[in-house]
């Protein structure tokens, strides 16, 4: 099959590689508004050719939107305008806004809303990786709003990439990712800013940076434009989680201020329950 | 040389292995108040024998305290009481309190205050690892208060383990580790509690846990007793950093509440400067 990928950055580029590596796409066409990225995607062999949106759609059986979520919301209606019997899917980090943008579109049922749970802190075509999605989860949202045959194509594709599938409505998805992904990014960004602020006075501070620091701050290297977009789209859920997180931090603060070390230890013993989840 | 290690958990056990693997200790004697840990340390080959404190000190050239910092503060004066020409070192996470506990001790100069910057979220003798300290930093604090020959022995030991040395006064050390290690643990513990709180309503939440989440929450598996001890000992510095961190998080919150996405992106662009440090 010929696949069009709109946006050949970290996710789009990695998906292009995965589709080729697994024999799922004979040809991958890239659509890319950034000329430098388009050029690099060709040079790196992520895509076979770069075309305009309408040319690309008419030559493809599957169209994947791998651009930031607000751009998906803008582009998706016109992508669906051009669709005859193609399947269209997105891979964005939030789902409610994207689905709402095409709810009444005559070709809504050709669109499958998905979110493969993989990413790194890097961005652009150079960040694309082989074997990126293997053994991770993909969420498919509001499956009942898509044609059964379109869903089957997308499910089969993800399974062939070694992913397992989860089904959720868009609303629940957006709440869950706020907890399981978005807040981790905010804490990392904020932690980096905390330490960078101190570094202005104490230039030796990073000489001590340990593996624990590297692990908690890694996500602070993530792309600001991408994440502004994600946080804007999932604003209410992210604010809820951020408030809860600040209130959890305040418990640590209060226990230290009051020198209530029994309570402090209790807070950490509770946090240890995460061992059930993270092996 | 014969080395006594007081406390054969994660750090003491790993140090025992490193000393043997690198031919630095012909014999390692363990001193361990937890009988089960003592037994496991023998079975795992971390130590050659278990002895009482006074027996162990008199048979050794080097004594290492690898117990939680508050226990170091209690034990160190009596360890120094028994010292003739042995070198004593600790490996604790905070340094001001430990050094203050022996400032006026007649054998103070036999003690070298150190902090090897390595650890994992696991604890106990079973968590001990070979090659643990390689390519990490060790801080030596208040070097001028220790005998030159004692410092030389400790420096040589750490260099042979593949570590590079940093020198700092205890006060600066404790500020720096609050920024570079302690706050990371608090944010991880608090993040785990944030998500575990939500899990009470939504049991599917962890199905989506991604690599980013695993990375930021990893430290929440750390030992509560150990970290209560560290936070107690470094209370004022940790509170300073925690306040700064909460205020950094509030900037994210304010920018989202006011829908000031330009400022939000600016905050993340600033955080990206961490790339200079974390490759």
Task: Please give the number of β-strands of chain A.
Answer: 8
What's the CATH superfamily of the largest domain in chain A, by name? NAD(P)-binding Rossmann-like Domain
Largest pleated sheet of chain A: 8 strands, mixed
Q: What percent of residues of chain A are in strands?
A: 5-15%
CATH architecture descriptor text of the largest domain in chain A = 3-Layer(aba) Sandwich
Number of domains of chain A: 2
What is the percent of helical residues of chain A? Answer: 40-55%
- Any idea of the CATH class of the largest domain in chain A? Alpha Beta
Rounded mean pLDDT score of chain A: 95
The separation of the N and C termini of chain A measures 38 Å
SSE string of chain A, helices as H and strands as E = EHEHEHEHEHEEHEHHHHH
Radius of gyration of chain A: 21 Å
Poorly predicted regions of chain A: none
Strands side by side in the biggest sheet of chain A: 3-2-1-4-5-6-7-8
What's the multimeric state? homodimer
Largest interface: A-B, 91 and 91 residues
Which descriptors would you attach to this protein?
alpha/beta, eight-stranded mixed sheet, 2 domains, 6-phosphogluconate dehydrogenase C-terminal fold, 279 residues, homodimer, Rossmann fold
Descriptive notes:
2 copies of one chain form a homodimer. Chain A is α/β, with parallel strands linked by helices and 279 residues long. Chain A has helices at 10-21, 35-43, 53-58, 69-81, 96-100, 148-160, 170-199, 211-217, 224-233, 235-257, 261-271; strands at residues 2-6, 27-31, 49-50, 62-65, 87-90, 111-116, 137-141, 164-168. In chain A, helix 7 (170-199) crosses helix 10 and helix 10 packs antiparallel against helix 11 (261-271). In chain A, 53% of the residues are buried. At the A-B interface, helix 7, helix 8, helix 9, helix 10 and helix 11 of A face helix 7, helix 8, helix 9, helix 10 and helix 11 of B.
